[in-house]
Amino acid sequence: MNFFRLILIVEFLLSFAFCKAQTNIERGITFYENRAEKHHELKVDSTNINTAIIFFHNELKTENDEKAIQYLLQCYYYKAAFVVRAKAEQQKNYYKGALIGEQAIKVYPKNEAILMWHIANFSKYGESLGVINSAKNGLADKVKFYTEKLIVLNPKFNDGAGYKILGVINYKVPHIPFVLTWPSKIKAEEYLKKALAVNPKSISNLYYYAEFLSEVKREEEAKIILKMVIETPARKSNLIEDMYDLSQARKLLEKLEK
């Protein structure tokens, strides 16, 4: 027993020394990278993501401000999407990410990661208010504006995320005469194909293209793509994100095959 106790003490001391040697930003990144460490299917424990958020908040207004904001926006998006369950809590976290991002894109206008994660939080916050309200309040126009800026900065960033977002909003946001006239199913397909040209193996790119095809009643094409998607293994680095898209792909395929 003494030997095993000694091993445990040594392991604890080594892990404590490692944590001490790390900076706040490095600790935050470590916890963020282990965000899916404790999960049951798509239900994720909040400990790691909340700890990451604390470390990144502590690095705001320091020399690591830009990187801390970049990760903080990712944290709030992840927490809202995969950790908290109540709609009010999800909305609150998307709003926090959108609020921080709104200021950050002015300070760091050329940081594509900050811009993309601001778009992600802002668009999800708008979605939580309802698609029609989002359209009427000009939130959809803002998402489009920011996403076009992202494409100018780096069209290939994050597997062509800018193209994918523009594609999705073009088929999900309704065309409202005299209020919102730009949404177009034709444009949606153009943008989604551009995203696939950047990364044709991306689970997310493939899933949203399949969802678009199902929306426009091209169901046989959608089923072929969905079958490809569900055979793709989730990446360890984006485990829950990929698992979510894979689960959505299975549900959509089941619906189309009924």
Could you describe the 3D structure shown?
- With 258 residues, this protein is an all-alpha fold.
- The protein has a domain at 17-128.
- Helix content is 75%, strand content 2%.
- The protein has a two-stranded antiparallel ribbon with strand order 1-2.
- A hairpin with a 2-residue loop joins strand 1 (39-40) and strand 2.
- Helix 2 runs parallel beside helix 4.
- The chain is globular and about 60 Å long.
Strand fraction equals: under 5%
* Parts with pLDDT < 50 across at least 5 consecutive residues: 16-20
Distance between the termini: 59 Å
Helix count, DSSP H or I runs of 4 or more residues: 13
Dominant shape: globular
Please give the number of β-strands: 2
Q: Report the biggest beta sheet as strand number plus sense, adding barrel if it closes.
A: 2 strands, antiparallel
Elements, N to C (H/E): HHEEHHHHHHHHHHH
Looking across the biggest beta sheet, what order are the strands in?
1-2
Q: Summarize model confidence as the mean pLDDT.
A: 92
Classify the secondary structure makeup into a structural class: mainly alpha
Q: Whole-number radius of gyration?
A: 20 Å
Helix content: over 70%
List the topology elements.
Layout: H1 2-21, H2 24-33, E1 39-40, E2 43-44, H3 47-58, H4 65-83, H5 87-107, H6 112-128, H7 131-136, H8 139-153, H9 157-172, H10 185-198, H11 203-215, H12 219-230, H13 239-256
Antiparallel strand pairs: 1-2
Salient structural properties:
258 residues; mainly alpha; two-stranded antiparallel ribbon; 13 helices; 2 strands; globular
